[in-house]
Amino acid sequence: MMENLTELFACKVFNDNVMKMRLPKETYKALQKTIKDGKHLDINIAHVVANSMKDWAIENGATHYTHWFQPMTGITAEKHDSFISPTDTSNIIMEFSGKELVKGESDASSFPSGGLRATFEARGYTAWDPTSYAFIKENTLCIPTAFCSYGGEALDKKTPLLRSMEAINRQALRVVRLFGNNDVTSIKITVGPEQEYFLVDKDMYDKRPDLLFTGRTLFGAMPPKGQELDDHYFGTIKSRVSAFMKELDRELWKLGILAKTEHNEASPAQHELAPIFTTVNIAADHNQLTMELMQRLAKKHNMVCLLHEKPFAGVNGSGKHNNWSICTNTGKNLLDPGETPYENAQFLLFLCSVIKAVDEYQDMLRVSVASAGNDHRLGGNEAPPAVMSIFLGEELTEILEAIEKDEDYDAKEKSIMRVGVHVLPKFPKDTTDRNRTSPFAFTGNKFEFRALGSMASVSGPNVVLNTSVAESLKQFADELENAENFDDALNRLIRKTIKKHKRILFSGNGYDDAWIAEAEARGLSNLKTTPDALPCYIAEKNIKLFTEHKVFTETEMHARYEINLENYTKIIGIEARTMLDMAKKDILPAVSSFVKTLCDTVISRKSAISEVPCTYEERLIRDLSELINRMYSDVSALDKELAKATQIGSDAQKLADYYKDVILSRMARVRESADKMETMTERKCWPYPTYEDLLFGVR
Ligand code: ADP
Ligand code: MG
How far is the CA of 443 from the centre of ligand 2 (A)? Predict the structure, then answer.
């Protein structure tokens, strides 16, 4: 039976259509105004909206409501309250007030705050973000909210994102006005995040403490076959996976999420989902929901969705490509080269604003994608390096070179290239999208930031992009608004910007060691790990940027620095303890028993026939015994080093550095011996499902 997809789409969303249908006209208008102008919602209007929202939710099977938000670590948080409200001892009514819609109290003490709440208030509150629609998940009405302390400090990822949208809106409006676009009243950032993930069989997953506790495998030898044949990418999708994807699509559509393409990725068991782009705060909400749904639905199909950036050593990890552009309320994509010389000049100026921003705030972009998990990918010849650079494609690079040198751009038409005088050629996607090694690529009419890890919220990187580009635009507007001759000033400004920031442009192979050396010569930063990158949060120039644009307060930046350091240390700590547990309780005993079996064989064989030597068994006994000893000594050392961490004190940076330098490298040694033993131990004696089982187990 053909299903009515248009009816299915967004059926669980309290969106514009529903509001139009269910709200009194006046209320609808007032709410629209709030949404458009970002004004405070009048409590009387909120009452009416809340009531209508509640009726709609109950009709659609909801019994509870929650303020749904994105704390600084973890995916999303929610606290469920039921609509039920007693009227007398035996009756109840379903209630939901405007106050409950607009503002929620939340005992925030268990969420990370980097000392923010201690300094201000013990409790935080959540506030409805009316630009992101409420929706029903399971039996709960979810209200997308921002999460703040009573002093107004952001305790979540959404608040700074909303602030950064305002910042770029303010500055971009000034710039488009200079080009005479007076009909434009607001400018939004659009984002389409492509999401990678792994699916493994749940029964196997359950037998791996490392996957359960850390999301990645801490041990595991490579199977005979990995991803070398490239046969998984775009290969046929296995029936269990395709059943999962089908259901995922349907559930996402019900939530109004435009899931568009689903396909296999490079590694075995790896897949990707791409949605159609939308406004950045909604894209961020949708991406969080997508990750949540992936994890929930996978379980229904007896699989587990791994969102970790590097669940398996030896095959590609998972990332998230953040496609980013700037769009006016009149529907014009400002990163799309236009039809007229003026549109082209405007495009070039916006392009330059991004080039300048990425160069000046490369450290902030780097830190926005830093996490313990992503450290395993960046620079690992599967993901872009930790060095930020921009790929523009051959044609655009040539145009910029010509502008910089004030030469004529001799395209096919043999015309002279002058900013504001000539029309640029269109850049078809296939000429711009070839370089997969670049962290930041121009792909025809948008930029694609490719260094994001699969698990992270897209909020952080977009906060940095929006704010740093807002700063470029602010400087541009300041300069051009006062210009005597706009065209000359524009030409000069574009040329000056290219000259000053061209070091960030790179078209070559980002995986090449030579590039890392060249990047250093160009003065680009190369922050290899999370603890190396995190101090960027408290660098003076960055605090200046974010406070001036009212995106973060200085206190909020310090808090983020602390939280991220602590989080890093905690993650590595959990990994190290899990590793010790597995090594001591499972792996060493298993190999030791296997050695005993071999010894028993030798003894009984020798008593049966003494003249034939037990070459295989004896060699294996010796090799495995040596490896057992080596692993045991590394395990003991790791134990001691973990204990020593408690003596470091409370300096979060020192602790994180210690976990990175000492604990992580010791863990690598423990793993090395274990993985070697795995290749020598009888299959049925190994205590865990292997990489082969995990990567090829879903059929
Ligand atoms: P594909 O990579 O599948 O050929 P695209 O390059 O068009 O397709 O899209 C990749 C991602 O970029 C999708 O999520 C898409 O919605 C998003 N995207 C396309 N245009 C824009 C834009 N103007 N702003 C933000 N994201 C966009
Ligand atoms: Mg892509």
Answer: 9
Nearest-ligand number for the alpha carbon of 458 = 1
Phi, psi angles (nearest 5°) of residue 496: -60, -40
Tokens of 534: 């995190």
Closest ligand to Cα 449: 2
What's the CA gap between 582 and 243, in Å, rounded?
Answer: 34
Structure tokens at 670: 């423990």
Pocket of ligand 1, beta carbon within 6 A: 190-192, 194, 261, 274-277, 323-325, 333, 443, 445-446
Residue 120 is predicted with a pLDDT of 42
Pairs from 632-636 (Cβ < 8 Å, separation ≥ 24) = 632/588, 634/666, 634/669, 634/670, 634/673, 635/580, 635/583, 635/584, 635/588, 635/670
Model pLDDT, residue 112: 67
Q: What are the start-end ranges of the H helices in 609-663?
A: 615-645, 652-658
Q: What are phi and psi of 134, to 5 degrees?
A: -75, 155
Nearest-atom number in ligand 1 for the CA of 327 is 23
Contact 277, 190 (CB under 8 A): yes
Beta strands 187-201 and 278-279: pairing type?
antiparallel
Q: Under 8 Å CB-to-CB from 450, ≥6 apart: which residues?
A: 319, 321, 322, 383, 384, 436, 438, 439, 440, 441
With the most atoms of ligand 1 within 8 angstroms of its CB, the residue from 446, 448, 466 to mutate is 446
Name residues of the chain where pLDDT drops below 70. Answer: 1-3, 38-39, 74, 85-95, 105-123, 230-235, 407-434
